[in-house]
Structure formats: structure tokens, C-alpha cells
Amino acid sequence: MAIHDSPGFLEALEREFGEVPCVMIDDQDEPDPEDCAGNDGLNVAGFFPGDQMSRIWAQNARYAEEVRKARRHNQLPVGLIVGCTAAIGMVAALGEHDDIGMIWLDAHSDASTPETSRSGLLEGMPVAMITGRCWKRYMAEHKGFRPLTDERVASIGLHDTSANPWAPDDLPGLRVTPAEVAEFGFENAVETALDALREEVTSVYIHIDVDCLDPSEVRVSSYMAPGGMTFAQLDHVLAAVAAKFDVLGIDFGAFDPTIEKGSNSKLAEAVLRAVRTVTGSVDE
Predict the structure, then answer these.
(1) pLDDT at 172 over 90
(2) How far is residue 274's CA from residue 252's CA, in Å, rounded to a whole number?
(3) Is 241 or 283 the better-scoring residue by pLDDT?
(4) Alpha helices by DSSP H, the chain
(5) What is the sign, positive or negative, of the torsion defined by CA atoms of 123, 125, 131, 135?
(6) Confidence (pLDDT) at 151
(7) DSSP per-residue letters across 51-88
(8) Which residues pair with 174 in a beta bridge?
């Protein structure tokens, strides 16, 4: 809502791209049991109302519907999402594409499983869920969802090592971590990962958790950590992605507008630049 309501944001999009349909998904916080995934064999139509998994399933089912509508109209779905688990809905909606990968920009891997997580926080598991490492039966309930193989996932960032106690080699997919950046430089490390991904797929979905940015740039999340990307580096990544892939969807997540005054407009500008870049609407 904060980015969506930032002064001039929608007007700028519409000046450049014409009418921009906007859909608010704010009516699925307490879904009825029949709206949720579950096990009919236990005489339960869904999870109990109010359950975390129930809400996430219902929200993602609705989100996926809107993404499919956008794609049917040859539109780029741009998600302004609260939690990273909303990526499940985007991936499910794009599951009909055989040739698709995922680029995950985040301070954290979000690849915990119930067995490796110390907190049990589901928001730390979406990459593991999308790559078929956990919650497999639950994920199969999402219409259109097909797990992505490791080779079809590239994670960029992962600089908050306090939240990633396991070895990077245990994480799924291609990675651009501080170690790769230190050895090869940021731009070369990104290019290498994207080139490897391009050998597997020609289309991608881009997920951007705003904590991938460095807090010296803007403070937009309580989960940010030193060592993140600058806005210029984020712009470089998106330009490199747009040059190599067909972008089928993009989202920005986990933005907290209460942390820093003025962050709304900074993030809104970043979203506008991102949409321009991935649609090829950047001024030469």
C-alpha cells in the first residue's frame, strides 16, 4: 500500500504504459475452511480458519489468479507483496511455462526447511518450498505449481550471514554471495550466475526482497544488514537480467514504511525503474 499510494507512482506508470490495472488482495486474511488446502479424507475441508498456512494458501491462490489474468492480457504482473511466501503464488501462476527460472534477490536465502529452521518461520522457507525441499503435499495443492530445479534458481545477496548458519553449498541454485563478489567483483559475479542460468531457461520471474539493499541506501526493513546492494547495483542486476531473459513477472516484498521517513518515494522510484528496465522502456 505504501508504494502504491506514493504520490505520483501510479500516474508515472500510466504515463509510460497506459492504463495500469491495480488489484488489492486484502480480503483473504481469515479464509473459510472451504477456501483452503486440506485433507477431505479427514472430513476437514481445509485448515482451521486463522491458521497461518491457511491464510498463505488462500492469499496465494488469489494472487495467482490475478497474475494469470495479467499474463493472458500480455501484461507484466508487478507484485507489491508483504511477505516472501507470496512468491509461491507467482510461481504457481507461471507454472504453465516449461522454460522458466527464478531470480531471488534477498539478504537471506529463504531456503530453510522445518528441519533446518531454528525459529520455524515459514517466511524463511519459500525458496526451499519452491524448489521442492519441503511442504511438498501442501505445495501440490497450489493450482499450476511445479517445483523448480536448483539449476533454474539464482540467488543474489545472501549477505546476512547471521541468519544463514549453514554452509552456502547446502543452499539451492546458483548464488552471488559476498564470497563471489569479493573474488570476482559484483558485476562479474552477477554476469557469471546469469549466464549459467541462461543455459537452463530463457524466461524468469524476479523476486526482490527489499532487504537486499544496504541500509546506508535506505532503511526499509527491520531485516536489513550491512553489505547489501546499492540502488545502482540493483539497477545493474535488473538491466543484466533484462538483456538475457524474458521477464514474466516481478515483485517487491517485505517493505516497512514506518522505519524511515521518505522511504516510500525512494522505493516507488526503484519500482518504476525496475518496470522500465525489464520491459525495455529505459531511455537510451
Answers:
(1) no
(2) 10
(3) 241
(4) 9-17, 52-72, 87-93, 126-130, 136-140, 178-184, 186-198, 231-244, 263-278
(5) negative
(6) 94
(7) -HHHHHHHHHHHHHHHHHHHHHTT---EEEESSGGGHH
(8) 154
Question: What's residue 5's pLDDT?
Answer: 64
List the domain boundaries for the chain: 81-278
Mean pLDDT value of segment 91-96: 94
CB 276 within 8 A of CB 12: no
For the domain made up of 81-278, the CATH class stated in words is alpha beta
Overall residue count recorded for the chain in this entry: 284
Rounded to an integer, what distance in angstroms lies between the CA atom of residue 200 and that of residue 97? Answer: 13
pLDDT tens by residue, 23-43: 777 666 666 666 665 544 444
Q: Contact at 8 Å (CB) between 178 and 228?
A: no
Gap between the Cα atoms of 196 and 208, Å rounded: 20
Question: What's at 18, amino acid-wise?
Answer: G
For 103-114, what is each residue's pLDDT tens digit? 999 999 999 899
